[in-house]
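Example for tutorial group B:
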């Protein structure tokens, strides 16, 4: 959006800091940088945050603000109101606002890990509190406001909250699954797969953005210019697929193709196939070859849909009416899940070929289901501190990234084991590779064990 000094003078000034001034604009806020700030360096990070998939609760830039000459001078954010987080330490306050122990404990865990610096895209953004729908509006606003601070230290708030919890006599339940022990043998090390000095940010195990702002295909080393707002995928022989909000593009046999898709939906590549959802709510597959492209409709998906693809197999979760239907290669499973989905993970067991679907709804509860040949049952007692898209599963063992360790849940035996790994955090994405993992972080990709 465009503005100038005259328009800014008409806005209500909310606060002022070293870098800029905060103004009220409609139901949002506008941050305008001061003249001494190097806005060009800020612009790159702001665009990265706008494109990066972050939890809904993270307050981040929504749009850039430019002057009449088209130069960026600031950005827009959601407006939130808050109060001191230490109120959680007051037992009466928690009872009056129906904030239960589980929700409070989730807050404390996040505070101890440190609130991420939103202004820096190289810093991982942790998963926020579950159960927002059942917390007071004032408390939700307070938690959101914390994310706007640039300090990882909260002074005495944390200690006061812990003291309030213990004095209130709250008890935390023990998990149903049994701990089978920790794996801490020497020699289990990680190896960085990319040259760190070349990496600005890693998007996935297939590509990253280098410090010259070029997209690099890890498999082939091919480099191409980066375009803001575009997600990049690569086919089996290295051909780049550029995904825009409403379409995707690629070049095959010397010809450039553009294909429309449902606005805001993602695409998946698997070998030389591209999977996407059409504007007519159909999951489609495009097979790209040198002699031409083949297009095949796979399944209808309803007005709300999530999908994943691996080894030629697809798993599609779609909402029809008030319920959800899982479609795994034409085999259907119904889920009695009527709530709003806030996070999801769809992962294939590379050994058995079955699919694990994990969903989180608006009240912070989880629904997990495995479908297909050799599917195992999934207990509701599993803890998911990370984004559900960061999990992985192999041979009926579910692997969950945590801070400094990987937790392995043996689903058939109902036990878990922890493996120490310094490169892992709740923001890491795990990819099973043989007897080890690829650990995909923002700054690099690691192989564990080395």
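The residue assignment follows.
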């Amino acid at each position: 959006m465009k503005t100038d000094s005259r328009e800014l003078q008409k806005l209500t000034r909310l606060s002022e800091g070293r870098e800029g001034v905060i103004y009220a604009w409609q139901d949002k806020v506008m941050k305008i940088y001061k003249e001494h700030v190097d806005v060009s360096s800020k612009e790159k990070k702001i665009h990265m945050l706008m494109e990066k998939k972050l939890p809904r609760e993270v307050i981040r830039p929504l749009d850039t603000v430019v002057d009449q000459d088209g130069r960026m001078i600031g950005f827009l954010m959601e407006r939130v109101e808050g109060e001191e987080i230490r109120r959680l330490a007051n037992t009466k306050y928690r009872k009056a606002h129906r904030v239960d122990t589980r929700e409070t404990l989730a807050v404390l865990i996040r505070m101890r890990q440190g609130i991420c610096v939103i202004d820096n895209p190289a810093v991982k953004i942790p998963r926020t509190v579950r159960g927002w729908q059942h917390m007071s509006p004032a408390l939700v606003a307070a938690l959101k406001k914390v994310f706007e601070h640039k300090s990882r230290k909260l002074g005495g708030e944390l200690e006061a909250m812990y003291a309030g919890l213990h004095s209130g006599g709250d008890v935390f339940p023990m998990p149903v699954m049994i701990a089978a022990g920790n794996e801490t043998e020497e020699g289990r090390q990680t190896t960085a797969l990319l040259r760190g000095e070349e990496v600005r940010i890693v998007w996935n195990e297939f590509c990253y953005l280098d410090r010259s702002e070029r997209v690099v295909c890890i498999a082939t080393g091919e480099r191409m210019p980066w375009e803001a707002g575009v997600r990049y995928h690569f086919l089996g022989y290295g051909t780049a697929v550029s995904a825009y909000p409403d379409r995707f593009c690629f070049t095959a046999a010397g010809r450039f193709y553009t294909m429309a898709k449902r606005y805001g939906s993602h695409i998946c590549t698997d070998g030389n196939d591209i999977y996407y959802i059409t504007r007519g709510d159909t999951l489609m597959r495009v097979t790209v070859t040198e002699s031409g492209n083949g297009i095949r409709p796979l399944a209808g998906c309803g007005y709300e849909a999530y999908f994943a693809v691996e080894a030629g197999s697809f798993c599609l979760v779609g909402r029809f009416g008030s319920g959800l239907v899982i479609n795994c290669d034409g085999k259907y499973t119904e889920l009695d899940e009527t709530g709003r989905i806030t996070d999801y993970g769809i992962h294939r067991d590379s050994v058995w070929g079955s699919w694990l679907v994990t969903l989180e709804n608006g009240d912070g509860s989880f629904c997990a289901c495995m479908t297909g040949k050799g599917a195992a049952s999934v207990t509701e007692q599993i803890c998911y501190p990370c984004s559900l898209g960061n999990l992985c599963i192999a041979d009926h063992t579910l692997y969950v990234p945590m801070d400094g360790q990987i937790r392995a849940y043996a689903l058939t035996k109902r036990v878990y084991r922890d493996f120490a790994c310094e490169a892992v955090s709740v923001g890491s994405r795990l990819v099973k590779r043989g007897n080890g993992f690829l650990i995909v972080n923002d700054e690099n990709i690691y192989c564990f064990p080395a």
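The longest strand covers residues 292-300. Compare this with the pattern of hydrophobic and polar residues in the output above.
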